[in-house]
């Protein structure tokens, strides 16, 4: 489907084409850019509300700054669709997040305008500061470094670490705080309240106006800007501003808040700020979903709505005639509430993903026992450890990819003290369209080497429920991780009675003589398919659902290796150090010599696409499992 851009937008091949636009044209370009994002995302899907909210900011930045020489870094990058469209990728934009197409996030290898690869939050200030310090060192005095960070991302610890550093640097750094009061769900915490306060406080705004007067003078006096700013900074007003402003206290010159939907005002402010050297922050107020009223009203739903009818706002969902299996996240969300009703020690913790993890179900049902701690994975883990020291049983739900942030906390604060924290790692395995920054490839490998830790993965909804039930039992008071993928399970009738699973015990799903599949987690369902297909060709394959990588079911493994010359291991995770590796270690330790083929994610960066496309690429989709069996059984030619 061909989607045509507006007339002005059609003429923009790069930001160079925007430099001469006048005030009216900048407004028109913003309008066309917003419409183009709506047109494309409604048909092809992707992140939506965040990019709509920064349309004017994006236009103003590329109009004022000399990108790509000036370095523009988008935090997380889910709001950078306008940036991509204006920087030479409009004609490819319909391939956004599609297998083989452009990435949904800024990516250095995709464009020179993407100054830094992103996807995880709160990295932009550190990266921009690093670039700014490099420019300072290289005496590139006129170069600008701009980090655009949302109020949600600003709650992440890294943002504070970076501001702490920036405040004592001389480098030419501009932080733009894009404040829309939203994370994916409504933003949380004291910083959110603080930002609202400085936006509305009477006293503060009076002081701020003084600062703006100085900026006005800077525009007029041009070359004397430095001097005027310096005079202002030694004044009493500046002292008061510093006392009453968090960012000023950290030595960052603070400007704003300003209306982020007034493109021409932003152009004039950014032009002023260009003249002020050193680290500074501009607070911009925007509305997530701006310009598409449904997205403005329900900002969480329209964060990444999927495809929709742009005229009616109907979000397209596949219609099935029979009941479908639920998403794993939903099973988690309902099951934690059920368990918490039985066990008053259970608490729920999420770092800024209440909707994504479905912990929002518990947050609604039991608000005093569930916490959204903001984009703060490290804090979420150590906070859970703190709860556990007091005899509570926190379920700390973190996407596998974001758990990478909190690795030290898992070891130092949980495992070494052998605390009873249950880690639910959602989006384990390929995340799909979000791509390599979001794939949950590494958790098996990075958790498997941690003493005291139980590492498990359910093959279906029942196993997820039973593992959650098992994990909270007092006799299992130790760090316990359960990984499961993005998307649906396999059991429409998922609400099964709880059954305890013995820790470290797998199960034989099917006997067979010719080879054995050993699977971990949801991909076990692919082995069922492969076994059926092989059976129709008189090949008899056994199938074991191992459930645990740590501890391993050694009894079951002795059975496997005593009876099978050919073994195929399957995991939706990194082959390096993962489940297959664990089995090779077991074989080496016990002197087994079966031929083993390991299927999983190779030692490469796998890009974006649907989960199945990526699994196919790596050879562990159902077809890949079948073909591997055929291959392993092929007679060796001499
Ligand atoms: C480390 C990390 N944790 C969680 C996420 C998931 N995530 C992506 S966008 C987002 C909300 C960001 O809010 P904000 O920075 O205010 O941007 P907005 O969407 O409001 O424009 C979250 C939680 C992430 N990308 N990285
Ligand atoms: C940008 C970001 O990090 C999130 O919006 C992420 O895309 C959410 O992924 P899910 O859609 O799997 O919740
Ligand atoms: Mg926000």
TrEMBL record:
Catalyzes the acyloin condensation reaction between C atoms 2 and 3 of pyruvate and glyceraldehyde 3-phosphate to yield 1-deoxy-D-xylulose-5-phosphate (DXP). Homodimer. Residues 326-492 form the Transketolase-like pyrimidine-binding domain. This is 1-deoxy-D-xylulose-5-phosphate synthase. Signal peptide: none annotated. It comes from the Bacteria. Thiamine diphosphate binds at residues 78, 119-121, 152-153, 180, 292, 377. The gene is dxs. Its EC number is 2.2.1.7. The lineage of its organism: Bacteria, Pseudomonadati, Bacteroidota, Cytophagia, Cytophagales. GO terms for molecular function: 1-deoxy-D-xylulose-5-phosphate synthase activity. Belongs to the transketolase family. DXPS subfamily.
